[in-house]
Write a structure and sequence with these properties.
- The complex is a heterodimer.
- By secondary structure, chain A is α/β, with parallel strands linked by helices.
- Chain A folds into 2 domains: 43-178 and 320-397, 3-Layer(aba) Sandwich (Rossmann fold); 181-314, Rossmann fold (3-Layer(aba) Sandwich), CATH 3.40.50.2300.
- Chain A has 13 helices and 17 strands.
- In chain A, the strands form 4 sheets. A 7-stranded mixed sheet of chain A has the order 7-6-8-11-12-16-17, sandwiched between helices.
- Chain A is globular and about 70 Å long.
- Chain B is mainly alpha-helical.
- Helices cover 68% and strands 7% of the residues of chain B.
- Chain B contains 15 helices and 4 strands.
- Chain B is globular, with a radius of gyration of 22 Å.
- Classes of the chains: A alpha/beta, B mainly alpha.
């Protein structure tokens, strides 16, 4: 008969001792860091989560260029770009709080699950203290939620859905980009002035969070003008051929088509709407018109000549003549040989704003960053005087109404700014019904 | 009524593309027994032949301005279209007819791509299970699309139809409707008749030539044809090249309808595969009939009146029809007995 040398008491003692040893480093780490991924003394890591594959890969590549430029400027390399025009002078080209800025990148693939996985990896494996980027509202909402749970700051890239700072807003998330409500509020007076107040509008809408809020916003704004909404038709994302959605417009009695599409959907639906002769038609005694509420120069390039004369809105455009925009265009153009897109601009600005908030607050703790950004008023970033509103973490600034240029002078000169709508005209209360349903909550420092 | 006619036209148009891709897909399956998931990529490559030709034809010489600068301080690039400078009006005509020039170029290019694909990769998988064939061809499709994305980017690239074919045709007048009731883009009619010509050409080739007869014999009984001393493999390689050319031409002519992007092939692949299954694996008339049928059904399902009754039907109709047909006719509409039943 064999006899075991292990006693129950012995096993428990040994287990407890091993457990204590294994738990000790985590415990000490937790006590040392009051927040997730506290940086060391020499460097701080930022996580740039952009679409590097998929339909928005070109926009993602432009975002990444802007981030790399921002890092250069923060570390005192290059000409400084908008650091020279930024109203806050806290940043001095020595990194953030004396630490050199380093970065890691992730590929969102413009898919929420992939974006969350890459953000999680950057936070857990690479020690990223802030996550930024993206080219889709679905992705922004998903990553923002993750950052809130993980206790890091999320500085949104290109996201235009009302929900990002509406029902899905989070205390750790901040959006510099404008939103669907602002586009509608800025566009409405221009549409009224150019097309009158007696129009029948037909909406084609991308069937996801951004499309829904864009449709709701622009329909409300045009109906307030006196326009009638004939129909709102949801189209699947990436439908490709939109002919079966466009032909019903021909005999619908509508005299205006509002395309709540972005990206390749916008390129295809606009191209096909023009192909079906909509812009050559006369309905109700008026010339048929097409409106694209959210424009992007990269998308306008894809749609080619079809964008000529079509109104839309944009967050920023490289042809702006203010000192800050020119500084950024010069810096970006010298680095890459072409002007930046609006996505590049918002990503560059978000990086600088985060760095500045840390510098001003004197702390990398996300709650200190939130405190520094909430209610922060600044200028010199290309959009005029801007406020990061405390109530929803949305930036309020001027909005550009643009039109497809009739006679472009070069391949980048596709949109002309027809109006700069002041921030007051696009401002709404925090509890506006289109943004209702969510709570900002408390900042989460993590750890 | 005008709306219904318009949706039928949309369906025929969409069905033309489905039928052309499915025709090649089923041709390859019928001859080589390979389920080629890279066939959508061939459609996409055809579209990018047009993009490449367009870039070549509109090639511009660049000189740097000595006086003007860009917004970022570099000397302004002054661009001059080379073709126009060299050939004048003929150069402009060539640029205008880029799509048709691309058709001529795409025929040899796509044929060679098809033959290289078959000889270089797919022939090694003839005796492997269908699951492995699907995996390797799907992998190839991803590789091809990523190569295209590397060179051309992810954004769609606009391509115009020739100016003379860019306008609208009032088709309703032909049917006795009031003018303006059924306007339809001329190029979409061109695409429809082009696809009919290609489909007719492929059928005539298989039906009325000795080569086609041997291929059909090989499709029915490959072993016996081989025993007769005919090198059926060479003919099947040719058929793979032909199928690639058909898919490529479908892509070339589709560029004014849908601005090409690197993902175009994947968008069409799944639908075309369903078309082949619904039509009957290996059946050429089945693929064509199912292509047009599913195109028309998809268009009708997108009508607002239909969507009000069954919301979201436009997104599932093709799959729904496939399920119903496979439940009632497991071999598809015109499938032959014995195909994929072992």
């Amino acid at each position: 008969m064999s006899k075991s040398n292990f006693s129950r008491r012995g096993v428990l003692k040994t287990g407890a001792a091993f457990g204590g040893v294994l738990a000790a480093p985590t415990f000490f780490t937790s006590a040392a860091n009051a927040f997730t991924n506290a940086p060391g003394a020499s460097a701080v890591t930022l996580g740039f989560n952009v679409p590097q594959s998929g339909a928005y890969a070109d926009e993602g590549a432009d975002e990444l260029r802007a981030y790399q430029l921002a890092v250069k400027h923060l570390n005192g390399e290059g000409d400084g770009g908008m650091l020279n025009t930024f109203s806050s002078k806290a940043l001095d080209g020595t990194g953030i709080l004396g630490r050199k800025v380093e970065y890691v990148t992730g590929d969102t693939q413009t898919k929420s699950d992939a974006a969350r996985a890459s953000a999680r990896s950057m936070i857990e494996q690479d020690g990223a203290i802030m996550i930024t980027g993206g080219s889709s509202s679905g992705v922004a909402v998903a990553v923002q939620g993750l950052c809130q749970e993980a206790g890091v700051i999320f500085m949104a890239g290109l996201t235009h859905s009302n929900d990002t700072t509406g029902k899905d807003k989070k205390a750790n998330g901040f959006r510099h980009f404008f939103n669907a409500y602002m586009s509608a509020a800025a566009l409405a007076p221009v549409l009224s002035a150019n097309y009158g107040n007696d129009r029948k509008a037909y909406h084609l809408t991308a069937d996801y969070t951004w499309g829904w809020t864009q449709e709701e916003s622009i329909a409300a704004a045009t109906e307030a003008l006196g326009w009638e909404t004939v129909n709102k038709v949801r189209t699947p994302l990436g439908a490709g051929d939109f002919s079966q959605y466009i032909t019903p417009i021909l005999n619908s009695g509508a005299d205006t088509l509002i395309l709540n599409h972005y990206g390749n959907d916008m390129v295809n639906s606009l191209t096909q709407a023009v192909q079906f002769g909509l812009r050559d038609r006369e309905v109700n005694g008026k010339k048929f018109e097409i409106v694209v509420p959210l424009y992007s120069r990269l998308m306008a390039q894809g749609a080619g000549e079809n964008v000529k004369g079509i109104f839309g809105s944009t967050n920023w455009h490289w042809s702006l003549q203010d000192e800050a925009s020119q500084a950024f265009v010069r810096s970006f153009g010298q680095e890459y040989g072409f002007p930046p897109s609006q996505a590049a601009h918002t990503c560059y600005v978000q990086t600088l704003l985060y760095a500045d908030a840390v510098q001003r607050g004197g702390d990398f703790n996300p709650c200190a960053v939130v405190e520094a950004l909430e209610g922060f008023e600044f200028d010199g970033m290309g959009n005029g005087p801007t406020l990061y509103r405390a109530g929803d973490h949305q930036c309020f600034k001027d909005v550009l109404v643009v039109k497809g240029k009739e006679n472009p002078s070069n391949q980048f000169d596709l949109l002309e700014v027809v109006d700069v709508v002041p921030a007051e005209q696009v401002t709404y209360p925090v509890d506006h019904p289109m943004f209702a349903g969510g709570e900002l909550g408390e900042c989460n420092p993590g750890a | 009524m005008g709306d219904i006619v318009l949706q039928i036209l949309n369906g025929l148009d969409k069905g033309s593309a489905y039928a052309l891709i499915a025709l090649g897909l089923t041709l390859i399956f019928g001859t080589l027994g390979v389920v080629n998931f890279a066939h959508g990529a061939l459609f996409m490559l055809g579209a990018f032949v047009t993009v490449t030709i367009s870039k070549l034809l509109s090639f511009q010489s660049v000189t740097l301005s000595e006086t003007e600068t860009t917004a970022w301080g570099s000397p302004l690039e002054i661009r001059e279209p080379v073709l126009q400078a060299w050939f004048g009006d003929f150069g402009l005509w060539m640029i205008d007819y880029t799509v048709l020039v691309s058709v001529i170029v795409a025929i040899p290019v796509m044929f060679i791509i098809g033959v290289v694909m078959e000889r270089g990769l797919i022939k090694h998988f003839y005796s492997r299970p269908h699951a492995e064939q699907i995996l390797v061809t799907f992998g190839l499709a991803i590789v091809l699309q990523e190569i295209v994305r590397t060179f051309y980017g992810a954004n769609s690239i606009s391509q115009s139809a020739p100016e003379a074919l860019r306008g609208m045709m009032d088709f309703g007048v032909v049917l006795g409707f009031e003018p303006g009731m059924v306007p339809y883009p001329t190029w979409r009619f061109v695409y429809f008749f082009f696809s009919l010509a290609i489909i007719g050409g492929v059928f005539a080739f298989l039906q009325f030539t000795t080569f086609g007869m041997v291929v059909r014999a090989g499709m029915a009984d490959r072993e016996t044809v081989g025993l007769l001393g005919i090198n059926i493999d060479k003919r099947f390689t040719f058929m793979f090249g032909l199928a690639a050319t058909v898919a490529g031409l479908a892509g070339v002519m589709y560029t004014p309808i849908l601005s090409p992007n690197y993902h175009l092939g994947m968008d069409f692949l799944v639908l075309s595969f369903i078309v082949v299954v619904v039509g009957g694996m290996g059946s050429l008339p089945g693929a064509v009939a199912a292509g047009f049928l599913l195109g028309i059904l998809q268009s009708f399902a997108s009508m607002n009146e239909v969507k009000e009754i069954i919301p979201g039907i436009d997104q599932i109709v093709i799959y729904l029809v496939a399920v119903i047909i496979l439940l009632t006719r497991p071999r598809g509409l015109m499938g032959r007995a014995g195909v994929m039943e072992d």
